[in-house]
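Researcher: Re-running this chain for the archive, since the previous output was lost when a drive failed. Same request as before.
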Amino acid sequence: MLKAFLCAIALLTLALAGPVDAQEPATSPSIKLLGTDCDIVLGRAKFRQVAAIETWIAAEFNLPAIREHPRLKLVSSAKIAALRFKVLLSNPKTGIAANDHGTSPAQGDTVALYHDATQSIYLPEGWSGSTPAELSVLVHEMVHHFQNVLGLKHECPQEREKLAYIAQDRWLSLFGQSLSGDFALDPFSLFIKIACFH
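Model: Regenerated structure tokens:
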């Protein structure tokens, strides 16, 4: 637990530092956190948080490390809604995973999406990753990236959401927060989002 907490604190510190340049260095530097086996690799994606979150997810859930980083795209809420609507009208096996909770209790729409084929995470314009709640949205979508890259199979699209919500809630708990407190997501609503009904 201490190891995960130290990784999370380091990740939040990196997040507050902001985005990195689009130009990548020839070799990616890494930071070894003293007293832990947590390495945070920098410089391989648009935002520093991506590699650190990958490290945290792999360590926290005993998953193999992945080398393929997702593309992060900041798009309008309308674009995210349109992508989500397209998913609802199409085959549920299209490979798009939606983070279906708002950024405040008053919202109930899709906050972010992951697209398997392009390995892209769509985040709303204005997303900065500057709070544990904002970063938790990225954590959620990064789990879908792991599921895609590792070829993990699920009985239904909703089942794919289970680990993503567990990771998101576990991330929030490192900061004394929760899905219910930050996103007004009660246990029954969460059950509906992760259960297969067929």
